Amino acid sequence: MKHAPRRPFYFADDLMLVKGWCPGLHKPMEAKDGFLIRLTPPGGVLKSGQLHTLAETAARYGRGIVQVTMRGNLQVRGLQAQSVATCQQILSDAGLSDASPSLERIRQSVLMSPLHAIDPECAPETAEIATNLMAALAQHPLLDDLPPKFCFGIDGGGFLPIGSIVADITASYEGRLWRVRCDQETRILEAAEVVDAIMECAAACATSRPGRRIASPRAANAAPLPHLIGKLPSGWRGYGVVLGMLRSDDIRQIAENVDEIRLLPGRGFMTPRVLSMPCLVTDPDDKMAQIFACCGIEGCEHAHMDTMRDARYFAVTLTANTRLHVSGCRKGCAHPGKADVTLVGAENGYAVIKNGNTQCAETHPIMTREAIGDMLKSQNEADALRK
Length: 387
Prior knowledge:
387 residues, Sulfite Reductase Hemoprotein, domain 1, alpha+beta, five-stranded antiparallel beta sheet, 8 helices, Sulfite Reductase Hemoprotein, domain 2, six-stranded antiparallel beta sheet
């Protein structure tokens, strides 16, 4: 097979400035409800004993709430300042995050196909490339010159189609070879060449555009992954977490029924065992798989509305194929892309945006929760009549 010629990457002007930063085990973030710690378990895997430790820690030192994020991380909420160091030690000792802050950040920055080593159609070298990339990053201070949310994707394909992973620099499996994509430029390479190409691209980015990310063409419209709910390859099953929120008792119950789970993007996890719990979405057609909500006024000082309560209120009126995003403010933390209906909290209700995102809020009318519920119900009835 003839390979594409080797050529340098370049960076277009189509870039986006990163705002904010990513919390971690070693970088707790203060929120309205206390400090928040984000965990990135190695390989996304949690054993039963680790789940018990997580549940106990969240209940004893926090609000007893753990969030599962869109990127497949965990967030322990409501920690008091005096208990943060204790929690860091407990969770690190349990192997739920790395004891080294620099290594933890490296692992947070490398995304790979969640079904690696489970899906027989996923490229067998996926995990090896990700591991080698993390080792290369550990030996090079490159991440210090890149913005906090800059990430690398190792996309092995298979059950999850190529393109499911959204990252600044992505390596995607294409038959026997890999395509490394950086902005609008690509290289077709052997597996052994992928890590060097990614490092070269990242170094060029750090030098040419410090503090800025490469705009991903899918980032603004990244779709959720409801097809990860239900049957998965090799006898595994995927579960969604309702509104991404687990309580300590939920985690204990999961731990008592499984040997391990593997976190999935899209606020979920997978396990070989069959589970049935109110906090879990087990059917990909369940409307709760299509509803996204931030923590709202309980956990965020920027939020204007109780988004968790309101998301459940609106769920009654939705059809299964309507994607709804309920955001407490314009930041859109729960879902950065477009939704069929996006609600943005204001002082007296929500701005209602159809087929858009939170950034459109200023040009849309404010409606009360009850009026929005009536609107959604009428819209669904009209849709049903047209069918």
